[in-house]
Amino acid sequence: MSNFIKKVLVLCVACAASIACKQNGDSTTNYADISVGDEMIAELTAPPFVPKPVGDRPAKKLIVNMEIKEIEGEMADGVKYVYWTFGGSVPGSFIRTRVGDEVQFTLKNHPDNKLPHNIDLHAVTGPGGGAASSLVAPGHEKTFNFKCINPGLYVYHCATAPVGMHIANGMYGLILVEPEGGLPPVDKEYYVMQGDFYTKGKNGEPGMQPFDMTKAVDEHPDYVVFNGKVGALTGDKALTAKVGETVRIYMGNGGPNLVSSFHVIGEIFDRVHIEGGDAINKNVQTTLIPAGGSAIVEFKVDVPGTFILVDHSIFRAFNKGALGMLKVEGAENAKIYSGTTQEGIYHPEGGTIQTMPKSGNGKEVVVNKTLDQQIADGKNIYGRTCFACHQSEGQGIPGAFPPLAKSDFLNADPNRAVNAVLHGLSGEITVNGKKFNSVMTSQNLTDQEISDVLTYVYNSWGNNKTKVTPEMVKTQRAKPAPKAKDMHE
Ligand SMILES: [Cu+2]
């Protein structure tokens, strides 16, 4: 073999090897050795927003200035809590970097704070993820440097003893390390992080609520929420998108205890960066997010509507606050989803499902119930149909489900209430001075059942004691369903 041919062969083998490396995605690049260009001050954002994508910018020396603030906030309507925060929000400010960036991180502890804090960034390769170098007393600041050598979405958190308590009070956030050239562009990007909270009083108990160490150790949270509080992502604070857009959610879980079964009701994740790393799973319904971990989920929104973000450990969503909303506007697409096109009577067989609510069109035995009978039967119906959203004492969930207790909307017009249960209710309404803009689906109940449940509601929790009769429901059922707009006037 001539020398020339040998050389060509060697070259070819080398070429093929390098192509193979690129194709299977092994990061052969040693990002520790990338030299950085000029300095740049990092843009930091409060949730649910994220800084601008890195695009194809070269690696830089990135200056991050973050200030710790201990601040009073609201966990739920009337429930106060002192949060410890990175940058004034829970989760803390979003940090966006790229592989090869050299981060100069300055952590400031506001002089009004009471405690020392530090930061452990999971994106850091080094002892304590920076914690050892960043312990800082109130009124002081500490600077340390690290190089981003692994792309991915990473959690950061405080790691000052008692570590669990600092995290439980809201000291966590996300740092994104984008790959070379950046993540593929999308239309909307959001920042959501789950956390569990432990308060002296039980869920909903008003006033200032101190942290409860015993409940935290027992892992019995009173609140499980997205972005630090009940209703942070509902009503007019809902995430938004337009039909046809692609949405990317940087989803983290601060814990301190629970893992999250993240799901968006009515959507399927087209792509999930599992655990915030390189591996991509496709067509996912629910993705597991470990405490101290993350995922990047991406999906195209094809039809309009309100899509509910939940931890599918579902009592957390409907009873502890882990519920957010994505409102999608745009044209309907009947090919993908066409709503109710037919309604029929389904006769279930078998003993276990015979307690299902009957259809309103079935034959009913008419009995003249007393007020007390109606209330007793109505309470039962409430427990199996309305409770999940409007809650046990009709208190609702701020920003998501309006109260039925002392509801001015309810008390003003029984026929309107009947129609809400008969036909469902959507669009903006105001209940006791608070705006709601969500969807209640129609409830598949008979005239008697609707009159019973509403009579129960009207005769509970300080409402005006209206007795709703089956005849009133029958009259409304006979009329065409009112347009959403008429319901709100
Ligand atoms: Cu701390």
Automatic annotation (TrEMBL):
Pfam families: Cu-oxidase_3 (PF07732), Cytochrom_C (PF00034). Homotrimer. The keyword Oxidoreductase applies. Keywords: Copper, Heme, Iron, Metal-binding, Oxidoreductase, Repeat, Signal. Its EC number is 1.7.2.1. The gene is nirK. It catalyses: nitric oxide + Fe(III)-[cytochrome c] + H2O = Fe(II)-[cytochrome c] + nitrite + 2 H(+). Belongs to the multicopper oxidase family. It comes from Flavobacterium proteolyticum. Residues 1-22 form the signal peptide. It is an enzyme of class 1 (oxidoreductase). Its cofactor is Cu(+); Cu(2+). This is Copper-containing nitrite reductase. It comes from the Bacteria. GO terms for molecular function: nitrite reductase (NO-forming) activity. NCBIfam families: Cu_nitrite_red. Residues 373-461 form the Cytochrome c domain.
